[in-house]
Amino acid sequence: MTAGHGDPGLLDHLVRGSLGWLEGARESFRLPPDVTTDADPNLTLKPLGELAELSQLIGVLHPRDEIRLTARELFAFAWNETRDGELFTELIRGEPFATYPLELYGTFAQAGLRHAEVDELLRTTTRLRGWRVAREDHTRTLGVLNAERRIGLRQHADFAAVLALTGLGRLPEPWALDRKAVYGVTHDVFHLTDWGRNRQRMSPELAGYLRLWLPSWLENWLEEQLWDLVGELLAVTACLPKAPYHPVVWQRLAEVQAADGSVPEMGAAPASDDPGEAFTACYHSTLVTAFAATLARIAAEEAGSGPTGGNPALVGGRTPGESESAP
Length: 327
Description:
Largest sheet: none
Low-confidence stretches: 306-327
CATH class: Mainly Alpha
Number of strands: 0
CATH topology: Glycosyltransferase
Order of helices and strands: HHHHHHHHHHHHHH
Distance between the termini: 37 Å
Mean pLDDT: 90
Number of helices: 14
Strand content: under 5%
Structural class: mainly alpha
Helix content: 55-70%
């Protein structure tokens, strides 16, 4: 199942197609007027935040100029939707202990897009006693800690200690993981490695566990046709040292991608003509496909260019736009 250093042509095709569809779906990412009051953040801010996170990474790290340009335009669109950061002042004042405004703002702050009032508000709210209350979802806590690091705030807990409590950190029996648990493991990896930017943060023990069991997990979720999770597992694979390449899985994912570039979350492409339903059914899996293919492309470049790797953006574990003071 594992062979070669990757297929750059196939991987670039997947990224181009995915970004093309996402570009055409801009209107569905726009925030509604009631985003700070009555709108469900899972249906409004969450999609925009995921677009920002992954388009920023692709816009910095992908080796092809035209792909980086498209991704950067999507990232600029996402920042514009926040009204150049002004949105976060309203979100933080309305919910000072909510973590999602900080997590979303962290994506932009890492890229150098800051808002002075937001920075001041976060310096205040993250020092409050209520902010330091332990959260039951340790994977989510990793995301908060990573956002605090990106912004330059003092981390409210020890990252390694929290990681040890997560699904990945506990090295669970691989045959006992259900869908939710596997999604948790993928996000443990993303927060640990800063979404693939700092892969050297992964310990040999965790990398060895993942290298051993990822092929089985990929085979299982490939059979279930859960393309969203297949994409996340491929992204995790690309975060491993000397990342393996799974040509059969990548080919299957390419076959599932529609002519318009969309990738369904599960099964076949949605039959509905309703744009809203099509967006909900495809946006995350399409983003994940572009993300995973970008990381795999970087891994392929590194495999062909010696031990130091071929992407200068990853040298030293820091990407352009990341604060020099970040640990």
